[in-house]
């Protein structure tokens, strides 16, 4: 994934807090790198125990199987099929969709997960395009955009228009980073930085404490 110099500078500034000091020198530095969600992830943590890359990849695979538009068998891909009118969400999708509705209301419609048809129309989706859209195509596609065409009923996500499809990439990577951070904390890791696709979380315990 290509990033501008400005984006890189902002990323490093945002993550700089993780390196404001050095963790307890009795702990070891560990690094886990890999690929997920069409991009890369990096984890650096200080601890006496070791976290396996397999455990991290398993967590990210579960999220991919839920919300990746590039995975034809994911829940979101199944929901985006025209013949699908509703789907039962898993806990990952349910949390992200509910949060998306909150952001949709907070932003007065500026944050909208039903932009998937527009994303694809302009060539930023899973399928390639042969030409840029004209004004008529854009107008027609906009008819299928709007979270007012979605409804959540418990664990089920329903669409009122069969042409509606969703893209959770605007929030899913940040969610994934939070899930990984929670996992590290549950494992007793208290000094770490997690980055995935530019989304970053860092936790540094007081350096005067042990453990």
From TrEMBL:
What kind of membrane protein is this, topologically? Lipid-anchor
Question: Got a GO cellular component term for this one?
Answer: plasma membrane
Indicate what this protein is called per its UniProt record.
Answer: FAD:protein FMN transferase
Q: Where in the cell is it found?
A: Cell inner membrane
Which UniProt keywords are present, listed alphabetically? Cell inner membrane, Cell membrane, FAD, Flavoprotein, Lipoprotein, Magnesium, Membrane, Metal-binding, Signal, Transferase
For this protein, the record's Pfam families field holds:
ApbE
> SUPFAM superfamilies of this UniProt entry?
ApbE-like (SSF143631)
* Function as written in the Swiss-Prot or TrEMBL entry: Flavin transferase that catalyzes the transfer of the FMN moiety of FAD and its covalent binding to the hydroxyl group of a threonine residue in a target flavoprotein.
Name any cofactors this protein relies on: Mg(2+)
Q: Annotated Gene Ontology MF terms?
A: metal ion binding; transferase activity
The secretion signal range is 1-20
Q: Which family does it belong to?
A: Belongs to the ApbE family.
- Which gene name belongs to this protein? apbE_2
């Amino acid at each position: 994934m290509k990033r501008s110099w400005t984006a890189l500078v902002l990323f490093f500034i945002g993550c700089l807090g993780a390196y404001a000091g050095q963790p307890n020198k009795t702990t070891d530095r560990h690094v886990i790198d890999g690929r997920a969600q069409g991009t890369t992830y990096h984890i650096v943590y200080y601890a006496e125990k070791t976290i396996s890359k397999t455990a991290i990849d398993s967590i990210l695979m579960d999220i991919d199987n839920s919300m990746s538009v590039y995975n034809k068998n994911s829940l979101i891909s199944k929901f985006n099929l025209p013949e699908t009118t509703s789907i039962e969400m898993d806990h990952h999708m349910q949390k992200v969709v509910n949060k998306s509705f909150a952001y949709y209301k907070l932003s007065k419609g500026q944050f909208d997960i039903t932009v998937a048809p527009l994303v694809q129309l302009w060539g930023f989706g899973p399928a390639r395009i042969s030409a840029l859209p004209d004004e008529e195509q854009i107008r027609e596609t906009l008819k299928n955009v709007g979270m007012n065409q979605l409804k959540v009923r418990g664990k089920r996500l329903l669409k009122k228009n069969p042409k509606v499809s969703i893209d959770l990439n605007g929030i899913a990577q940040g969610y994934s980073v939070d899930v990984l951070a929670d996992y590290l904390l549950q494992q007793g890791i208290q000094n770490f930085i997690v980055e995935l696709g530019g989304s970053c979380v860092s936790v540094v315990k007081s350096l005067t404490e042990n453990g």
